[in-house]
Design a protein that fits this description.
0% strand, mainly alpha, 301 residues
Length: 301
């Protein structure tokens, strides 16, 4: 359940920060009359994300009658979820310092167009997070059918993210978002490795990949599946005592290189040699300052 809580917390906080940046810009620009359009766009994005999650579950449980088809569907969604997780964490790592400036620029353009453009801009800013959350949650919660724990954990993570976002906006709480996204990103990489391992297992059960009975090792005597810590490892990172060879290759082959790439120090841009500041540099500085001001948190490492 911790894995789904982490998914809800991470994705929810990203969406909450986006919304807080939009709201803060409208408030400071004396355009509170456009706030209803922002909330309408956000509400529509949330509703569509919930519908997408329901559609995935309905497809798996009702539309696919053969077990092989269900296994293949779950395998494909697992791989898609891993792709989204990987893209999301690296995108946030790269764009964290400029996202506020970009959102402010797009919202300025939308304000000049009209109400529908403002609602559409807010919708597009949130829908990506919502669709990602639905897909990743479905993949992470596979095997927990009939158990409401993962869903409650996801909702708990989202609620926690919303509370943190409100406190950040109200300047009642300050956290280092750079470190937050680094730690949660590293944990999500391990979660994604487990999702990929689960997907490989589903491909094997569907007959697409061989080696279903070819185990890499069996440490059941050491890691008893009935113990609480074995259940915790299996639920968080899909670490099981008797994985197949292909499952093990997939888990290690994804987790190790992606973690190394994600945790490596970011390259520092060379300092400008001229004393004058270009318009591009001023825009980047303004965007970073706007993000720090809107999110009420410093951008210090």
């Amino acid at each position: 359940m911790f894995a789904t809580y982490l998914i809800g917390l991470r994705e929810g906080l990203e969406a909450t920060l986006v919304v807080s940046i939009l709201v803060a810009f409208l408030v400071k620009s004396q355009r509170r009359d456009r706030l209803p359009q922002v909330w309408a766009g956000v509400g529509l994005a949330v509703a569509l994300s919930v519908f997408f999650g329901w559609l995935i579950e309905y497809t798996s449980t009702s539309l696919l009658s053969r077990s092989e088809d269900r296994e293949l569907f779950e395998a494909i969604t697992s791989v898609a979820a891993v792709v989204f997780v990987t893209w999301m964490i690296f995108w946030m790592r790269r764009a964290a310092r400029t996202i506020a400036g970009e959102l402010r620029g797009k919202l300025t353009e939308a304000l000049a167009v009209g109400s529908l453009a403002v609602a559409g801009m807010a919708f597009l800013a949130v829908i990506r997070e919502g669709l990602e959350t639905a897909l990743i949650f479905y993949s992470a919660a596979q095997g927990a059918s009939g158990d409401s724990g993962p869903l409650l954990a996801l909702i708990g993570g989202i609620v926690t993210a919303v509370v943190l976002g409100v406190l950040l906006y109200a300047s009642a709480l300050r956290i280092n978002l750079s470190k937050f996204f680094t730690w949660t990103g590293a944990l999500l990489i391990l979660v994604a490795a487990g999702i990929l391992k689960y997907g490989v297992h589903d491909f094997q059960e569907a007959g697409v990949l061989p080696g279903l009975n070819n185990l890499a090792f069996d440490i059941t005597s050491v890691l008893d599946p009935s113990t609480w810590y074995a259940t915790l490892l299996a639920g968080m990172f899909n670490v099981t005592p008797a994985p197949t060879v292909l499952e093990t290759i997939a888990w290690v082959g994804y987790a190790v290189p992606v973690l190394l790439l994600f945790l490596r120090p970011a390259r520092r841009k060379p300092a400008p040699t001229a004393t004058t500041t270009t318009d591009t540099e001023r825009g980047a500085d303004t965007g970073a300052e706007a993000e720090a001001e809107a999110a009420s948190t410093p951008q210090r490492a």
